[in-house]
């Protein structure tokens, strides 16, 4: 993941005090996953801005909220990475095994909640988590609880269920204690008001106030990500083109499903030069 951003990898290693792992083994640790995602996304966003492409809004899903805050000018790269590193360490230490996340496709929020209610127990907790699309909803909790919920969801008519490659139960009440620690930590960093509107993960609303954005960065680990609302607010505020930083293209496809008239560019698929070309071409057509 990090082979094409060596200058940022070197910078990140100095900040966290150890070289970043970037291999198959690293995919089993949320610490290395979160660090790599933050570095990769931030590096490519900076590169696009360096080409003269400046976003009107920034929106990140879960760990992506931290690169979004950096690009908005709220936190420095260095302080955001320190916060990401601490976040990941706390999450991994709290739930080293037996927990994770899964996705249910083809049911409404009410139906998924019904499956969760039938499956949750104190010994094997499971919670409704991220709202990615109207009928793509994430669960978090114990693997036992998630698998029970999958069985209930299939009985209710779900078209697909799948465990995600996320070894921790993010975005649910199991992370409440961690979010409180992160809130104390983020308040120790120098913060700036957002130069670019920032979409909040746990409310789906648009923010500029540094204190509110800091709160969102800390709390999003314990609350569902309201991606569907974040995208809708961007569209309502005039956004018609969404550019997704590497890696992947999942978020741009989710936006396309919900907002057919918008355009999407996944930089991972087309590359920086093609992304810049398309954006400039579309802007010229509008003018």
Brief account:
Helices cover 49% and strands 13% of the residues.
Shape: globular
Output the structural class: alpha+beta
End-to-end distance: 37 Å
- Strand order within the widest beta sheet: 2-3-1-4
Domain count, please report it. Answer: 2
- Residue runs with pLDDT of under 50 for 5 or more positions: none
Q: What is the number of E strands?
A: 8
Tally of separate helices: 12
**CATH topology descriptor of the largest domain:** Malonyl-Coenzyme A Acyl Carrier Protein, domain 2
Order of helices and strands: HHHHEHEEHEHEEHHEHEHH
Helix percent reads 40-55%
Average residue pLDDT: 96
> Major sheet: size, sense and barrel closure?
4 strands, antiparallel
- CATH homologous superfamily (4th level) name of the largest domain: Malonyl-Coenzyme A Acyl Carrier Protein, domain 2
CATH class of the largest domain: Alpha Beta
Radius of gyration using CA atoms only: 19 Å
Secondary-structure arrangement, i.e. CATH architecture of the largest domain:
3-Layer(aba) Sandwich
GO molecular function, one term: [acyl-carrier-protein] S-malonyltransferase activity
Organism: Paenibacillus oralis
Catalytic activity: holo-[ACP] + malonyl-CoA = malonyl-[ACP] + CoA
Protein name: [acyl-carrier-protein] S-malonyltransferase
